[in-house]
Design brief:
CATH class of the largest domain: Alpha Beta
Shape: globular
CATH architecture of the largest domain: 3-Layer(aba) Sandwich
Domain Ribosomal RNA large subunit methyltransferase K/L-like methyltransferase: 166-299
Subunit structure: Part of the heterodimeric TRMT11-TRM112 methyltransferase complex; this complex forms an active tRNA methyltransferase, where TRMT112 acts as an activator of the catalytic subunit TRMT11.
Strand content: 15-25%
EC number: 2.1.1.214
InterPro entries: DNA_methylase_N6_adenine_CS, RlmKL-like_Mtase, SAM-dependent_MTases_sf, TRMT11, TRMT11_N
Family: Belongs to the class I-like SAM-binding methyltransferase superfamily. TRM11 methyltransferase family.
Number of strands: 15
Largest sheet: 7 strands, mixed
Order of helices and strands: HHEHHEHEEEHHEHEHHEEEEEHEEEHH
Structural class: alpha/beta
Length: 436
Amino acid sequence: EITSLLSLYDGQFSGEQEIRVDSPFWILNIPSEEMARGLMKRTVCAKSVFELWGHGGSAGELYASLKSCPMEKMLPYLRSDSTYKVHIHTFNKTLTQPQKIKKIDALEFLPFKGRVNLKNPEHIFWILEDYGMDPNNVPEEPFHLYFGRWIADGQRELIESYSVKKRHFIGNTSMDACLSFIMANHGRVKPNDVVYDPFVGTGGLLISSAHFGAYVCGTDIDYNTIHGLGKASRKNQKWRGPDENIRANLRQYGLEKYYLDALVSDSSRPIWRKGMLFDAIITDPPYGIREATRRMGSQKETVKSAERSTENHVFVSSNYHLSDIFFDLLKFAAEYLVMGGRLVYWLPIYRPEYTEEIIPRHPCLKLISNCEQMLSSHTSRRLITMEKVEEFKDQDQNSYLLDGQYMPYRGHNSFREKYFSGVTKRIAKEEKDNQK
């Protein structure tokens, strides 16, 4: 997310140290404070950003680092006519108030000339201490210490204010608010973009993009979901209400002006005019677990597969293999994304069989990132971000079938069976343990 947002603001990702997965603190080279503030206006992953004045593996190293910090960098924030306060934050350890005061007092060698103001200071300084990630093995002294000037906070409050629990219209697979905003940031969504979701469902992914000023639209094969009809997904509610729909969701957050439309459509069938229409495609395809994977069939197919809605709207559906879903999605993105536009989607994975080779590829799309979210001990899903780097040509239409790339992913057509096989094994093991 940070890398995507830095590139959105024409910045480069370059750390003074390697990204440490065992630490919540990163040191980044950001060209300007303005860029840092722009990044924090978008991110839901980062909590705060600071201008680093000193750091070290011990208190002595921190103090030595601070003493070598250029004075011209510090003096504008230490003037006698300014006010300030110092916070201390410890990760994985709680300090008493006297311990905190002792650590703050140890910084008296810094040339603070202003007055302390705890309620409304002009400048806020932080001591950050990293005690590792293991709550069962907390060291006496921190592994690393940082001191810096606070610049801005991230947008963590969006997770609560856009919580699915408070949303007007939800479904079985409505996307968590935090993940929705992360996806929009991976897609580098910006004001006046046009963002499309081909598996729109209840529109959760449209909301995060609209929050960042993009115009949003989507399609879904489910007539009842698009029109807000049928059984409700909430507990203790049997049927959906008259105003439970995607438009009402955007209206709830004051984003209705960014809503273009949602159409009942099969993502495997072309409905759009030719051309580069979308700045980003952000979607969560069905995996066959909570929602069925299906596409339009023909009238010649078995009548048993016909489905009827409350409006007597009839269509015939057939199975839509996961491999076909994702390759159709890549082909669509290659054709309809603008140059530099991004495709962001979730790819379900059976972990014992996962390798990088099974990530679907297309010659017009470059893989930008591949992040894992664990679902269970044996399954996960990968957040795949791809960027359009080449113009789509008709000969590209089936190029994804070449070089044996199509066959490895065929194995994921049985993701549902593998997912539930793990559940079955766990239940059997629990029953066996209970009998003991």
